[in-house]
Amino acid sequence: MAKKPPASDIDESRLRVSDRKSTAVGIPAVLHALQISQQQMGTVRSLRTLSRVNQKDGFDCPGCAWPEEDKRHLAEFCENGAKAVAEEATVRRVGSDFFADHSIAELRAHDDWWLGQQGRLTEPVYREEGDTHYRPVSWDAALKLISDALRTLDDPDRAVFYTSGRTSNEAAFLYQLLVRGIGTNNLPDCSNMCHESSGSALTETIGIGKGIVSIEDIHQADLLIVAGQNPGTNHPRMLSALEKAKHRGARIIAINPLPEAGLLRFENPQTVRGALLGGTAIADDFVQVRLGGDQALFHGIAKHLLEAESATGGMLDHEFIATHTSGIDAFRALIEDASWTDLEVGSGLAEDEIRRVGEAVRTSRATIVCWAMGLTQHKHSVATLRDVVNVLLLQGNIGRPGAGVCPVRGHSNVQGDRTMGIYEKPSEDFLRALGEEFSISPPREHGYDTVEAIRAMRDGRVDVFMCMGGNFVSATPDTGVVEEAMTRVGLTVQVSTKLNRSHAVTGRRALILPTLGRTDGDRRGGRDQRVTVEDSMGAVHASRGRLAPPSKELLSEVAILARLCAAVFEADGAGSEVTPRADWAAMESDYALIRAHIAKVVPGFERYEERIQKGRSFFLPNGPRDARRFATVDGKARFTANRLEYPRIPPGRLLLQTLRSHDQYNTTIYGKDDRYRGVYGGRRIVLIHPEDVAEMGFADGDMVDLVSEWTAPDGSVRERRAEAFRIVPYATPRRNAAAYYPETNVLVPLESVADVSNTPTSKSVVVRLEARDQASSPTPSS
Length: 782
What we know:
With 782 residues, this protein is α/β, with parallel strands linked by helices. The protein folds into four domains: 22-88, no CATH class; 98-185 and 427-619, 3-Layer(aba) Sandwich (Rossmann fold); 196-407, Dimethylsulfoxide Reductase, domain 2, CATH 3.40.228; 654-776, Beta Barrel (Barwin-like endoglucanases), CATH 2.40.40.20. The protein contains 31 helices and 33 strands. Strand 21 (531-534) and strand 22 (539-543) form a beta hairpin. The chain is globular. 59% of the residues are buried.
């Protein structure tokens, strides 16, 4: 039997810390995944459900976007994938009786872990202005509330429509059609906070805002550089691909401020070597770069290559550079003028350490650089990623087997959402095709991204906020500002599978619309429906759940959106030059009709239905990968000359990065532990170098407040505070620190964003430590 949900929040009074691990996965991961599954689903349901994860006739894991190989294992999931499935397929339920017993104020007093552990939402609920509780509401009444609010807007730009990464292609396409039919491009999404810097840099330099490698390229690479990423926790199935590459002779370099167990040694539980013989050492070299120092490192790699070319020749791919690139002269001049002293200071590495990485790149026949949030959430992230491309271009490592850029996306289908048009700055080609298909004139003016949407809500310029999945309040920066901003909105709408903090911090009126998840069967129009997703490497495949839905009241995201479109666009008096005409009821009953529309609007989806039959996947067109074709301003891959930048840390301060624990996926908290880092029973910890702890007058186990300091454009210093964190001495670079989000999102200023991409700078927050009265703080144990 599955265990009941918790009656109280995480109690950190028994938090304890032990030595960090030097291996990842193995039998402990299997046992922990089974334990979570048992607690949420029970034994029989766990076996039935986990056997279908990522199978060709099953459902796509609701966790990360790492791709599957064509040949599947019986257990084609990782520990965190099993946790994600268990959370969604739980037998716990949240119905009207729950909301009658718990006021919104009470919900707000609980943490995200407690809220998520209560179970699946089963019926729509509504909070009228002034109400203390949510109360049940019919689907028709709920959709009328939304449609009335949208149709009576003074300006369509006073509505904002957010999307998380788990929304299917079909739902995402209908969602953006609804939004553009209303007349706005206000379509912020989770990419704005994660890989927007990647998209900005890659679109400018190689003409496509996504990665250009396949899973087979990973296996064929001679050198894999994994920078600013922790696959052992965030994308555990990536470890299997790295292991295969290693056994084929690849060299792997891990670049990260923290030593991460998954990049040290991987115990693959599906092999004898992993289960019994100690597994595989993954990284040949661990390069402990300081926070924000990656650009200096890649400048140093480029300098090493150019110096070797000047000395002996034969280091660069001159034919590729001459035929397929532009801008080499300005880049070469900038790198040649770079000072090794500046590169050492910027990276936190000695010259010989930088040259060691440069030499590995020089001798590689095919190099892939993989990265995640560690590179994308700094002020100079876009410049850093342009320099990643610069290094690869020098040796022609774009558009050939075993080589290229590999931004590792997070949430499943976050990339597919963007492909479907979930973007505040859509291309003219996309809008033209959409307009031709639905006989409309979509708006051309750019909409709000996530940060701009928060500012608009803060300033009272948003009347309706709709969230398709995700946990906007906890996921976004500057938590206090976001919560206050949300209360200024007239109507907030959350389409969700489970409770989260965004249901407790609402507009004056609020709706929660429960929806089906990936694991749930979706039978509409007399037939079982399927949806599709795009993985991190641009492959599209079908997904179909089989479990009985938690309630007969639930609608799929597609059904919710089709009915909402009908309510908005078919109501009396509706209609304008941007109003789409479509058979909404037919699309609700047959998702293949939505895919037929997608095939006419989005390039690469020709013969869509045929190509997803029998569990098949197909790759979307990728100019750099397919033909060394670059859709840039000059039709060539572009070298860029980027001035060296890195964070400056004031005296007596630390530079903080936010990060996940191992029992966590984005803002979903599975449990209290982070066993790879040796943390058990709590989350309010801050990892600091032992010498910094002593130098600042603290000791292991001291309780402190974290106070971020942000210098505004007018020169004033503005502070934000996160209370009651235990100091844990850890192997971080000097004057760098780390702590878990969402607890530390409150420290990230809304105005502190990356140049170009506008991504919050969650990996470079200047903080000071303030001692707490130990008597008023939880008492952790060691």
